[in-house]
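User: Can you write out an input/output pair for a complex, sequences first and structure second?

Assistant: Here is one pair. Inputs:
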Amino acid sequence: MPDEDQKSSHSSQLNRSRRNFLGQMLTAAGGAIAAPSLLKSADAQAETAGEALASDEIQIALTVNGQSQTLNLEPRVTLLDALRERLALTGSKKGCDHGQCGACTVLIDGQRVYSCLTLAVMHDGKDITTVEGLATDDEPHPVQTAFLDHDGFQCGYCTPGQICATVALLDEVNRGCASAVTTELKNPPQLADLSEMEIRERLSGNLCRCSAYHGIVAAVQQVAGQHPSPAALMQIRESANEAMEVGL
Amino acid sequence: MNNFIYARASSVQDAIARTAEDPTATVIAGGTNLVDRLKVFLEEPSQLIDISRLQMQQIERLPDGGLQIGALVTNTALADHADIRRDYPLLARAILRGASQQIRNMATVGGNIMQRTRCPYYYDTAFACNKRQPGVGCPAIDGVNRLHAILGASDQCVAVHPSDMCVALAALDAIVEVAGTQGQRQIPFVDFHRLPGDTPQRDTNLELGELITRIILPPVAYARSGVYLKLRDRASYAFALVSAAAALNVSGEEIRTARLALGGVAHKPWRATIAEQFLIGQPATSSVFEKAANLALQEAVPLSGNQYKVDLARRLIRRAFAVSANSGGMA
């Protein structure tokens, strides 16, 4: 916090410039996304509440998948890094880390967001749901089942984001939210008549490099209570056959 | 990203005081653009002042029939608001054509207005950029510039403003209300953003310590016929190559009022006032719309890679007006 920071302004300035240098070096090197020193290991996270607060850290409380969590974090830690590196919830994926791919999608107070584009400290007191929090006991969430039923993935990396986005999509449609392709703003489609174009538009913030979009659309149609179109099912079958032919 | 001091503003006055006394402090709300800029070291603030919990999330009817929108209303909340859908459909449609649901859920109205260009040279610190460091040069002018400006650019900067929402607000004669150490002031939307000139580092006319508090939408008869058209490299989740916000008030056989703003073509949402004035008193025909489109683009100065934007913009304008004349809706 400001006061504490001023007390140790000399050392924190040194820290800042050293980290600045480190961060820039790592960025220049190409691949590194966060300096390892910024993030404590997941092993250490359980006892965070009892740990002394470092001068450049802030303590926040989150409810993550129904469990209360107290975390000491530097303000620069994104929600995604806090979930993955501090709470060992590695279901949410770091794809682009710039809010362009959707692999990091989680729900904050029920609304889908990119966890890579938001700072964890800003969400003190909020309720976070990740893909790990969707199933109940041993029963998968209906959206998870639908993705399995329709091969809504290939490599699976984007899948946690796709599934969280779909869970939110269903809620948005139920609440009457419109999309860019909604013809009548005053009369947005309900789940039963959500067109394929609506589904694709509403999930456009989640990219799939394997291009499993046919399966994803079919999965959404299933959880929307529709019967996936024969064309979509045919596409899925053809893709699977092609994959088998080339020995994938 | 570099670390910074994080402080939650307790009030608008508190946020103003903190940013006024420290020029290196930055305000954060939705953060969808700022966090990205922090990650690539485009911004290195000493402090981040979090205003996201301040009470500026209301959309309220004004006595004159207009609407006021709190600066912290999310893009999603604005696009889904029943009054916006009914009275200002152009605004709802522009917002829904921007970004993705995840971004719109986080992004605020104030932040949308304050977002910065996505010019690839600005974003890549390996290149020079007058917007980042005045005087070092603009590699886009002779570089890969298919995404860049065709109107109002300077020899210092050819970047474009990325927002869809702002194009609609420009067409709707919106007003930006800001608060600062000297009190409040209202800025017409078209005067809020700046052309690059020889100060490309400044996107807006917001002064140090000033904060956007609300947007005012005047009650305008043409708003319900408003149309937003956007063309981009892919069908969804991409910035505009060119976009057009158009609205008409046709009475009898004559156009009484016309509004036209373009996106993706300039450093700010571009109001085409010459075309608007030409349309007044004209019949709503395709040849009239074609003339208006030509007028709107007559001062275009395309770069080596974006000549296509001139034709694209002309066609977009014609279609936007044609749909608006037919009482608006999906274009």
